[in-house]
Amino acid sequence: MCVIGSAVQGLEERALNAWPAPQTLICSGWAVRAAGGYTKRANSANALAGAAPVETVVAPVEAAYARLGQPSIFRLSPLAPAGTDEFLEAIGYAALDPTLVLHRPTAAAPLPPDVQIDHVLTPTWAEGFAAANGVPPARRALHDRILAGIVPQTGFATLTQAGAPLAYALGVVERGAVGIFDVVVAPAARRRGYGLRITEALLAWGAAQGAREAYLQVVAANTPARALYAALRFAEAYPYHYRIKPAP
């Protein structure tokens, strides 16, 4: 069942806090975020509750991204004012990456013994995640900077088999909800259920930290990930997508 109104606002606020951009400009109810180009979530303009019509902010948003040497990107959640998508399309912005926010209740459960959860980012986790996810060295510093900037409670999960770390994931708990991010399994260990297992571990960890709800974001075209989350009884909360200004 899709969520509406204040529930969307609450999930949007938590998700922005869980994936912080090192640089943020607030412009008439839009959070213009920048993180050196690492992930569109951290490098796009996001409508907050009560955001001004997009036609009044396009110019300052484009100017801000031009100063940073980045493309102008808008992330359009249900909080975007009516007509935003149509306006951006009319001025040439291209649509990309339809994405779903999924959610479900949490429930108390024991943590599996093969999953370790650290409350702070460690070099071992950062290096292992980067290797498993193929993050180039030049981009890893940008990723680590985002992770180091998270203010709410964090859980950096590692699944190990026979002494070898095989899967990684991040949980962020804020105001009764746990967000799940950065779920990745080492290429040689995929299709063995480790992604499901480490996600279950973070659901249990989040419940133990007082979270009553879990949420995550998945690209709509990512069929394997959507099947995984459906198996875990996640349901759609709401969709979003991006609009990007083409390069001249």
Automatic annotation (TrEMBL):
Residues 115-248 form the N-acetyltransferase domain. GO terms for molecular function: acyltransferase activity, transferring groups other than amino-acyl groups. InterPro entries: Acyl_CoA_acyltransferase, GNAT_dom, Rv0428c-like_C. SUPFAM superfamilies: Acyl-CoA N-acyltransferases (Nat). PROSITE patterns: GNAT. PANTHER family: N-ACETYLTRANSFERASE. This is N-acetyltransferase domain-containing protein.
